[in-house]
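Entry:
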Amino acid sequence: MSGNGMSPEGLKRLRNLADFWGPRLEAVDNDADLAKVCFDRAKSAAKRAQRGGNPRAMHELAELLAHWAHDQERADAKRHTA
């Protein structure tokens, strides 16, 4: 175990994920594509978490997205009624 509390296997997994997602993020040239890549990354992480024993991971991701959307919708509604 290294000084950061992560096993060599865990560090390798993180490096592999960085190697996978880094180029995709760097290739993005607009905010819509950035959102898509970030959503895909989050969905992938939730699936891995579920396989790793967190059955609520996808639900937790959905809740985060729903709260964000709700906040944006409220802000938009306030702008249009002001």
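The first helix runs from residue 8 to 27.
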